[in-house]
């Protein structure tokens, strides 16, 4: 058994788990956060994307033991409580989902994309950056629209905050 | 995934010691190939030795003509490194075409080289750049390092700690992706050294993994332009043939990707 001690959405979590436990299993079964989904068994679909120390990773392709000592943010912790995060709000406004299964991973990937590219984000970049997130319903159109809109709103909010 | 025991090493010596005492150990770096393989039960190491907490094995340094990249440097870090983008822009660009953003945040150059997947990108670059692979035991020339499909010159318990190479006059990388897996069906790294010599590394196409296309190297050494390749043809014997592409199709792809790599070289 591995002793895993990490921060999930700002709270300290300490558990003993099997060494082979994947981070996504740990989050879903040991921390009871079922937002990160398991959509494939091949590390391709991206439904399980979370942030580990501020970077988007596939939580199905990391052991919980590897994440020990790290800060993990899941879809449940993205908004910090209260209002939706701007990316969540944009997905709702633009109907960036149909069945919703891929949505938590899409939103966690999207916030990472916006953080890395900021104002330079364009449609081609968003589509290229969504390489690791598969949606079988929407054809991506409204997902891309939502991410671009969120990026411009977040940039506007950052400018207002700076003034 | 079968049961395994996770160890976190804090030094190369400790990693080697844990590996030596394991029944069937494996080193774990970014884990972006090893963990999916374990999930499919195609690999079942008794022990995993996590290398990512060892200090000093990460980062890019450019010192005059010499470029060195630590084995634990992630694809994302290689892609984003400013000094590398100036010294060897094609290599930085190439790192940004591996996998997807989440994979690039975890996957490392050392892990990719040690795995030597026949469709991985880095091996082609290392061959073309005439790189040296540094391990915890020795230095190995890229020409001697890649010995076959998923095979390298690494011995049991040997760890890739860094790669280094001399910056070149020009280089370029182009790949034709499998539309489903996005792995290279043919990827070509073309490099023209400062002494005018040319090396061409080809991935995704060879039956034995990465290889050099020497006929093109000679043609390009006397005339560094895509046109110089018009009279060259890739021998399709020894190339991969599968449901995605025949050996002859791949042979043509290699030629086209080489032309594109020469044209985009900077």
UniProtKB/TrEMBL annotation, chain A:
Keywords: 2Fe-2S, Iron, Iron-sulfur, Metal-binding, Oxidoreductase. CDD domains: fer2 (cd00207). Residues 2-78 form the 2Fe-2S ferredoxin-type domain. PROSITE patterns: 2FE2S_FER_2. One of its GO terms (molecular function) is metal ion binding. This is Carbon monoxide dehydrogenase.
Automatic annotation (TrEMBL), chain B:
Gene3D superfamilies: 3.30.465.10, CO dehydrogenase flavoprotein, C-terminal domain, Uridine Diphospho-n-acetylenolpyruvylglucosamine Reductase, domain 2. It comes from the Bacteria. PROSITE patterns: FAD_PCMH. Residues 1-170 form the FAD-binding PCMH-type domain. GO terms for molecular function: FAD binding; oxidoreductase activity. Signal peptide: none annotated. Keywords: FAD, Flavoprotein, Oxidoreductase. Pfam families: FAD_binding_5 (PF00941). InterPro entries: CO_DH_flav_C, CO_DH_flav_C_dom_sf, Diverse_Substr_Oxidored, FAD-bd_PCMH, FAD-bd_PCMH-like_sf, FAD-bd_PCMH_sub1, FAD-bd_PCMH_sub2, Mopterin_DH_FAD-bd. This is Carbon monoxide dehydrogenase.
């Amino acid at each position: 058994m591995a002793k895993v001690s990490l921060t999930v959405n700002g709270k300290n979590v300490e558990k003993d788990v099997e060494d082979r436990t994947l981070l996504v299993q740990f989050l879903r079964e040991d921390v009871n956060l079922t937002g990160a989904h398991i959509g494939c068994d091949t590390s391709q679909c991206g439904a399980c994307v979370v942030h580990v120390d501020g970077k988007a990773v596939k939580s199905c392709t990391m052991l919980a033991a590897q994440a020990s000592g790290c800060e993990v943010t899941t879809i449940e912790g993205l908004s910090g409580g209260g209002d939706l995060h701007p990316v969540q709000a944009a997905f709702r406004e633009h109907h960036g989902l149909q069945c919703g299964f891929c949505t938590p991973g899409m939103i966690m990937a999207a916030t990472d994309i916006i953080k890395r590219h900021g104002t330079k984000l364009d449609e081609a970049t968003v589509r290229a950056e969504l390489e690791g997130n598969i949606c079988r319903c929407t054809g991506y159109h409204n997902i891309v629209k939502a991410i671009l809109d969120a990026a411009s709103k977040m940039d506007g909010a950052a400018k207002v905050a700076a003034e | 995934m079968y049961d395994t025991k996770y160890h976190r090493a804090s030094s190369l010596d400790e990693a080697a010691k844990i590996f030596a005492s394991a029944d069937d150990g494996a080193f774990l770096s970014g884990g972006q190939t090893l963990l999916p393989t374990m999930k499919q039960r195609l690999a079942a190491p008794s022990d995993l030795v996590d290398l990512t907490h060892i200090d000093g094995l990460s980062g890019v340094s450019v010192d005059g003509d010499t470029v060195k990249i630590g084995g634990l440097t992630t694809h994302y870090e290689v892609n984003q490194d400013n000094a590398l983008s100036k010294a060897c822009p094609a290599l930085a660009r190439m790192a940004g075409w591996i996998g997807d953003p989440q994979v690039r945040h975890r996957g490392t150059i050392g892990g990719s080289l040690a795995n030597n997947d026949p469709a991985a990108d880095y091996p082609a670059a290392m061959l073309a750049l005439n790189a040296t692979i540094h391990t915890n035991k020795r230095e190995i020339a890229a020409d001697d390092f890649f010995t076959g499909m998923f095979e390298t010159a690494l011995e049991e318990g040997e760890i890739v700690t860094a790669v280094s190479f001399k910056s070149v006059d020009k280089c370029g990388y182009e790949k034709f992706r499998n539309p489903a897996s996005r792995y290279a069906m043919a990827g070509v790294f073309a490099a023209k050294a400062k002494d005018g010599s040319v090396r061409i590394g080809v991935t995704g196409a060879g039956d034995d993994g990465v290889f050099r296309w020497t006929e093109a190297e000679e043609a390009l050494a006397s005339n560094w332009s895509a046109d110089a390749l018009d009279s060259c043809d890739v021998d399709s014997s020894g190339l991969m043939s599968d449901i995605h592409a025949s050996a002859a199709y791949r042979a043509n792809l290699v030629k086209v990707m080489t032309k594109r790599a020469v044209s985009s070289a900077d």
